[in-house]
Amino acid sequence: MSSIQLHVEEPTSVLKTRIIALGPWFQNLCLNGVQTAPNHFLGDYPRVKYERFSAAFPSNLDGRSVLDIGCNAGFYSLEMKRRGAGRVLGVDTDDHYLDQARFAAQVTGINVEFRRMSVWDLADLEERFDLVIFMGVLYHLRHPLLALDLIHSHVARKLLLFQSMQRGSREITHVEPDYDFNDEFHFDYPAYPKMHFIEHRYSHDETNWWVPNRACVEAMLRSSGFIIESQPEEEVYICRWNRVSRPPDGPHCVYPSRGRSIP
Fold first, then answer.
1. Within a 10 A sphere around the Cβ of 148, how many other Cβ atoms?
2. Is-cis flag, bond preceding 247, omega within 30?
3. Confidence of residue 5 (pLDDT cuts 50, 70, 90)
4. Where are the domains of the chain?
5. Is this prediction's pTM over 0.85?
6. CATH 3.40.50.150 holds for 46-170+181-241
7. Rounded to 5 degrees, what are φ and ψ at 179?
8. Which residues are CB-neighbours of 12 under 8 A, at least 6 positions away?
9. What pLDDT was estimated at residue 252?
């Protein structure tokens, strides 16, 4: 089946009217020459970020399956389809963003499925994907490590494209495999893995819950079973799924929604 849907190109004036009606847009998409968020405070976002790491993974995804968690208006979902991906599924919990994503897919004629789904319900998909995109989501979650564990346990098969906002030290300190109970000093090292908790708001956004430093991001990825293969951009990591042993205290994650086990 072709990945291109039949569509009728609308006059620019009509397209602009529909884009405005679906606003505000967080992602600036170029839809038949019309930008959705031309005055974005980060510039041409997320394309400016994407261009800094896009060469780090295959230009031809050759029919591989992709899951885009927290897809927003679908920028990365559409880009992966343009790179030759086969099945592409974008999920988000915000109907406003999903309406934008479906509209963008319709206008561009690109066949991407978008579904309302939380990261906590990923087990319900009962499917693993060659590439999982998990960008700009971690710090919006009350339970970020659980989210990574669920991704590893239920939907990731090969690669994870990961990004999180980071604050604090960019340095990585050596962490011993164990410490004496009375040794408290290492917790004060700026480069020790730290996750900063936001009780109220950060950047006027009440959905920002946690902001890790670089050491914490990398430690969490390793702990959840992802091997960091490269860091092509300051906050972006390309990771490979790795099987993890069952720890003495039981499985790495609980299952708010449990699907059948996917081999």
1. 26
2. no
3. very low
4. 46-170+181-241
5. yes
6. yes
7. -135, 150
8. 32, 33, 34
9. 73
